[in-house]
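Subject: design request, 207 residues
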């Protein structure tokens, strides 16, 4: 069972549908016991960093997420879910993120000819042996929708990067914590492969 955390953010249902298409059993929930008992946990979402942290606190989910990570449950952050795992964001100065990983979320710099938010398909440079990207081509294309990007403190956790006005850390892998700035649920075959690879973590004979 994969628990998808429901904290009133946008775009959660599409993640649920993509996993259903892969035959995965999911539950959309904010119940702490259900989340802590899940085989895997996903934090998806589109929206404001500050509003999202406020919702996570309001629903009592901040410590639940930290406990999930501490116990070693495979955890996947998607888009806003990636950003929330880090310490702070330019989007909402003064608001602390979950702080599970070290780094900050910065606004994509303005550049002539490039629109912000960044919306569309970009190719990734993937590090060797990255778990989520197992079985994919060298420079897979994925779909982004964001105005802010990750700059991780520790380059060794960066699993994939892309270029859009600046050098963007597009995916990270740190122990049992995985995250993507792009939307695997909107990234066609490549995205479904990424979600399948996450779902397979720890299963006998699989990734």
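Subject: RE: design request

Done. Sequence follows.
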């Amino acid at each position: 069972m994969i628990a998808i955390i429901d904290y009133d953010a946008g775009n959660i249902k599409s993640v649920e549908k993509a996993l259903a298409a892969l035959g995965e059993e999911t539950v959309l929930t904010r119940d702490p016991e259900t989340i802590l008992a899940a085989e895997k946990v996903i934090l998806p979402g589109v929206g404001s960093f500050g509003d999202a942290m406020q919702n996570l606190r309001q629903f009592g989910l901040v410590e639940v997420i930290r406990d999930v990570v501490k116990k070693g449950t495979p955890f996947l952050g998607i888009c806003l879910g990636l950003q929330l795992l880090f310490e702070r964001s330019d989007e909402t100065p003064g608001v602390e993120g979950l702080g599970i990983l070290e780094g900050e979320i910065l606004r994509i710099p303005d550049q002539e000819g490039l629109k912000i938010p960044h919306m569309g398909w970009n190719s990734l440079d993937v590090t060797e042996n990255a778990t989520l990207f197992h079985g994919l081509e060298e420079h897979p294309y994925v779909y982004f929708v964001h105005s802010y990007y990750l700059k991780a403190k520790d380059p060794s956790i960066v699993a994939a990067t892309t270029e859009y006005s600046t050098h963007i850390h597009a995916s990270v892998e740190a122990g049992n914590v995985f995250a993507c700035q792009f939307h695997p649920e909107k990234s066609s075959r490549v995205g479904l492969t990424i979600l399948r690879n996450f779902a397979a973590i720890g299963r006998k004979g699989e990734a």
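The CA atoms of residues 116 and 168 lie 14 Å apart.
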